[in-house]
Amino acid sequence: EKKYLCIVHGRMSKKEETAIKAGKAETIGTLIGQGTVLDGTVTTKETIRIDGLVKGEIHSEGNLIVGETGRIEGNIHSRSVLNAGYIHGNLKVDERLEITSTGTIVGDIVTVALVIEEGASFKGNCSMQTMVNKSDIKSESGEAVKEDVLEEKQK
Predict the structure, then answer these.
(1) Are 135 and 144 contacting, i.e. CB atoms less than 8 angstroms apart?
(2) What does the alpha-carbon distance between residue 137 and residue 123 come to, in Å, rounded to a whole number?
(3) Cα separations in angstroms, 51 against 26, 38, 112, 140, 141
(4) CB distance 149 to 134 below 8 Å
(5) Contact 61, 43 (CB under 8 A)
(6) Number of helices and strands (H, E) in the chain?
(7) Which pLDDT tens digit goes with each residue over 52-78?
(8) pTM for this structure?
(9) Which of 106, 111, 138, 108 is nearest to 122 (CA)?
(10) 100 burial via Cβ count (<10 Å: 0-12, 13-18, 19+)
């Protein structure tokens, strides 16, 4: 199984260069390049970068990076999302969603953490969630419940 570290300085946004300099670079398991059109559902356990067009759903257990030339027309479920391109669809992000100054999202968002840079565009509804440890919650019998649960807060 081959993995590639995608660092292309000529096409990388300043935000992505800053993330790499800060030591946040990671291996990209799937790359949909500029000029590529993928029609269908994408499912991956690794980080995926989109610089082309995806028409369909994306399910990623890893991170999703949408480059400045990237476009997604479909719903997304991912651990985290960095969007510098265009997304038209609903997003369920388990950890963090960041929309850079060149990014656009048209659709509803459910996430734990949301960062929207000045200049970014977002049209839709946002539902924020926080992680609550059930061990902090007592059952009716007074016993601590051990599982984690997401508590939803409307924002």
Answers:
(1) yes
(2) 36
(3) 17, 11, 25, 51, 53
(4) yes
(5) no
(6) 1, 15
(7) 999 999 999 999 999 999 999 999 999
(8) 0.72
(9) 106
(10) buried
Taking the chain, what is the end-to-end CA distance rounded to the nearest angstrom?
42
* Structure confidence by residue, pLDDT tens digits, 72-122: 999 999 999 999 999 999 999 999 999 999 999 999 999 999 999 999 999
Q: How far is CA 125 from CA 41, 72, 108, 109, 111, in A?
A: 24, 18, 5, 6, 11
Q: How far apart are CA 80 and CA 109, in angstroms?
A: 12
Provide the H-helix boundaries in the chain.
Answer: 14-21
